[in-house]
Amino acid sequence: MRIGIIGAGQLGQMLGFAARDLDIEVRYVDPSDNPPAAECGKVIQCAFDDPVALVALADTCDVITYEFENVPVAALQHIEGIAPVYPPAAALGHSQDRLDEKKLFDKLDIPLPGYHAIYTRDDMDVAANKLGLPMVIKTRRFGYDGKGQFVVKQADDQDAAWDELGGKALIAEQWVPFDYEISCIGVRSISGEVAIYPLSRNVHADGVLRTSRSPVDAPELVAKASGYVHRLLDHLDYVGVLALELFVIDDELLANEFAPRVHNSGHWSIEGSETSQFENHLRAVLDLPLGSTAGTGHAGMVNLISEISDATRSLYIGVLHDYGKTPRAGRKLGHVTVVADTAEQRDTLVGIIDNSVT
Ligand code: AMP
Asked: Are 319 and 271 in contact, with CB atoms under 8 Å apart?
C-alpha cells in the first residue's frame, strides 16, 4: 500500500511519520530542495500542479491526498481517474474561495459573520453600510495566516484598502470582537464513519497560530462545533481530516473558515490524543476503522516561528518537534507539545515554553 501526498512540508512529514507507524509507504510531489518530508519517502521534485509529475504520482500510488489547500482543483481532477483523490476536489474548491466557503456555511445553517462580495471600490461603501465598521477586507483566494487582509477601521481607510488589495477578487467581513478562537477537527472515512476531536482553543499573533490548548471546557460549544463539522463532512461526502475555525462570542459560535486537511491547531493530537489527526487522516483515506479521538490529558501546543531558540531547546518539558527547515522570518520551524493532568498545569507549562520563544 502506498499513499501519494502532494506537498512535502511539515504536514506531509507528520503524515509520513504516521504512515511509517502503520507500515504504509508514502511518496510526495514538492518543488523544494530537501523538504521536511524527504526523510519519510521519495519526493518527485516538481511544481504542485505539474501534470506529468501528478500522473506519475497517481500511477504509482493507491490513493492521493494533499497537505495544503492551494493545489489547483483542476490538477486534482486531472488525476482522479487514475487514483482516488481525498479529500474530494469539490471540498477543496469551496475552501479556496472565501465567498464560496461562506455560501456553503449559509447553506448548511452554520452561523458566520456578515459578509459582502467586493468587485469595485463602490462595493466597499455598500459593504461598510451593510456590515458597519470596523470591517475586514480579505482576498477571496490564496490568503493564509492573515495575509491579504486589511482592517478598515474608519471610512477614510477604504481608499488605502482598495490601493493595497483592489484588482483581486475580494470579500468584506464584519469585524468580530471575539472572546476567543477555537477550532474543531473532524475526520470522515470512505465508509462514512465520523470522529471529532476535542476542541482546541487557539491564540494567533499577527494572523499566525501561536498556541493551541485542548480540550475546551464548554460543553455547549463542543456540541455546536461538532454538529457543524459533522454537517460539513456529510454534505461534502468528505474523506479525511477537516478543520473548522470559529470565533467564540458570548457563548455563540461564528465560522471563520475551514481547511480540507490536517491542521496546525491539531498538532497536540500526536501526544495528546489516543489517535493523532495524522494517523486518522491516513485511516480515513484508506477506509480503515478510525482510531479514538479521545484526549489523553490537557494538551498544549506552542508554535516555533522564525527560529528555535536555545532557551526552547534546553527546556526539559514537553516534546519538541523540529521540522528541520532553514530558519526564515515568519516561517513555522517546529512546535512543542505538553500534556498535563490539569488545565492549570498545562497552562503553566505552555506559559514557560511561550516565554522561551523569542
Ligand atoms: P484568517 O486568515 O481568515 O483565518 O484570519 C487570520 C486571523 O485574523 C484570525 O484567526 C483572527 O484572529 C483574525 N480575523 C480574521 N477575520 C476576522 C474577523 N472578521 N473579525 C475579527 N478577527 C478576524
From this structure: yes
As a whole number of angstroms, the distance between CA 155 and CA 262 comes to: 38
Residue 335, strand partner residues: 303, 321
Instruction: Name the residue with the closest Cα to ligand 1, atom 21.
Output: 176
Specify whether 242 is located in the same domain as 130.
no
Find the 347 Cα to ligand 1 centroid distance in Å: 24
Ligand 1 pocket list (CB less than 6 A)? 113, 136, 143, 146, 173, 175-176, 181, 204, 207, 245, 256-257
Domain span holding position 131 = 114-174
pLDDT of residue 199: 98
From ligand 1's centre to the CA of 35, what distance in Å? Answer: 29
Overall pTM > 0.85: yes
**H/E element, 134:** none
**Positive/negative CA dihedral, 322, 327, 333, 335:** positive
176 CA: nearest ligand 1 atom:
20
Do 218 and 341 belong to one domain?
yes
Of all protein residues, the one whose alpha carbon is nearest to atom 1 of ligand 1 is 146
- For residues 189 and 66, state if they share a domain: no
Q: Which of 54, 58, 62 is nearest to 2 (CA)?
A: 62
pLDDT tens for 279-291 read 999 999 999 999 9
Q: In Å, what is the CA distance from 141 to each residue of 1, 93, 97, 110, 152? A: 34, 10, 5, 21, 19
Low-confidence ranges of the chain (pLDDT < 50): none
